[in-house]
Amino acid sequence: MSPSYDVDPLDLAMAPPADETQEQRAARLLKEQAAVQRSKQIDAELKASKVVMKRYSKAVKVLVLGQSLSGKSTTIKNFQMTYARKAWIEERSSWKAVILLNLVRSVNIVADILAEELDDDAEVIQEISSRSTTPSVSPKLTEKHRSTILRLGPLRQIEKDLKLHLGAGSTEVNDSPIQRSPNGSVTDVQVDISRSFGQEFSVRSSSGWKSVLDKVRHPLPGKESNPPSVAFQVVTSCREEIKWLWNDETTQNLLRNRRIYLEDTPGFFLNDVDRIANLEYDPSDQDIVRARLRTTGVQEYHFTLDRGIVSVNFKTPISKHERTVNVTDPLDWIMYDVAGIRTCRAAWIPYFREITALLFLAPISAFNERLDEDRKVNRLEDTLMMWKTICRSKLLFNVQIILFMNKTDLLRKKLNDGISVKKYIPEYKNPNDYEHVAQWFRKIFFKMYDDAGRVKAGLPFIGHFTSVIDTAATAKTLESVHVAILRNDIQEAGLV
Ligand SMILES: Nc1nc2c(ncn2[C@@H]2O[C@H](COP(=O)(O)OP(=O)(O)OP(=O)(O)O)[C@@H](O)[C@H]2O)c(=O)[nH]1
Ligand SMILES: [Mg+2]
């Protein structure tokens, strides 16, 4: 029989079987309905993804704020390490110069303290001999200390050269080794949670780690010596002296007596001398997040993400239940890293209008510390006042704010060392352990956020406890931040 051209072969193929029963028909119709529904859903997802992609022809912009030393640059380093691994690896070895400077600075601090002590001893001996009694050898420091300090003398020039080479960010506002003490005696300014936000601003020129690392990677032509490589040679040749001085019991006792806790200061590498002063040395991820380079001005970091698709959970009108949508991640992220010291905060404001999200770093371990730039101000109080202002800012009302309650490792350490929170925050009445203290801080931050009307306005509070030198844990936190930023932005734009 010849084929009939009046019948579409596709219709024939799709037609139900001629002997279909009532039950089979009902089941088939149900199946077809579900398929149509699913197909509509896929179309909607595709449409949303397309609009999202179009919208994200612009980059996602994240402003990272917080006081100096709060961990802003360290958070951005973690972001780059996790999402833009290629660029991170390319830059890695350039961090060596910063790490060397951090190390040399610590050695010089120790040497200065010992030299001062030796001078004091010499004065005592001189006084004793002028009284014509038999001069005695210093009870604490020996000839070995003196000769070791002498041999470490060239490191002073190395510190100067590296600072000159690396620029303004290589020095702290107040370059004092006395950062904190376990009993809080040098840091006893109390927190007044009710005080208002001081407004003292000025703008500085910008220089972030990228520009500093560029300088290291591409030194100016015509320069005979390259400070980082000279520094590396000198540090390597002094390795045994540095180790001896740092591990010496008398040195340790002296530092403890003076309540100098170098181990807790940013950029501490004295326990890693063997590894660093070694020809094979290549900075590890951990070393880089621990390295300290102060940000001056505002620095933009452009990251081209290594991957493109992110799964985001939404509650959407299409499906009543929460479901996952794969959206094409914007490949370009811009993160703004700012100088946290008070005099530089005016420079933040122009960025408030441009951003997708704001990441606020609150170092909650700093409850017993003072600002370097203003020794009268408690660091936690400064952070809280800044947080309050940011939550209330009208300019930021459409911006998602994410809080990192950072330096939890140092908070734990201080509480374990017996430092009392109540001494600095009289309102605090709970037990002096990590869980209670951390939750109490969270409540304070939440209250300020809520009082600003943000929760009522449908902007949920997002707060994470972090220690951003822990790269594995921070990668997980950043993953959820990353998704939260995308979700909020897509929802706000009404795209799903
Ligand atoms: N122990 C510990 N150290 C941290 C943590 N976060 C940051 N740091 C260290 O603190 C120092 C300062 O961190 P940065 O990220 O440079 O601080 P910042 O907020 O960028 O400071 P400015 O550039 O001065 O505004 C660095 O040496 C970091 O390694 C943390 O959670 N725990
Ligand atoms: Mg910084």
UniProtKB/TrEMBL annotation:
Residue numbers binding GTP: 406-409
Coiled-coil region(s): none
Pfam families found in the cross-reference section: G-alpha (PF00503)
Keywords, sorted A to Z: GTP-binding, Magnesium, Metal-binding, Nucleotide-binding, Transducer
GO cellular component: cytoplasm; heterotrimeric G-protein complex
UniProt record, GO biological process: adenylate cyclase-modulating G protein-coupled receptor signaling pathway
GO MF assignments: G protein-coupled receptor binding; G-protein beta/gamma-subunit complex binding; GTP binding; GTPase activity; metal ion binding
Binding site for Mg(2+): 295
Protein's recorded name: Guanine nucleotide binding protein, alpha subunit
Species of origin: Crepidotus variabilis
